Amino acid sequence: MSYLQQTIKAVIRPGDEAGYVAECLEIAVVTQGRTLDETVKHLQEATALHLEGESLEAFGLRDKPTLVLTMELDPVHAQAS
Length: 81
Prior knowledge:
single chain; alpha+beta; Double Stranded RNA Binding Domain
């Protein structure tokens, strides 16, 4: 019996120009948006479209997987006075 995941992991990071880029780690889904809210919405839509009509088991996923997001931020360093 194979182990099926309940989650799809994704990372959101600042884009090169402006806005944000989101990328799923287990499946081939990448999208972008001008705001965080727009980026998350696009990621949900793109993930649903990618999996539509597919066997989730073929992707190693259980039925109705949860999308788990991590955000990458540039570190902010304290200024010396």
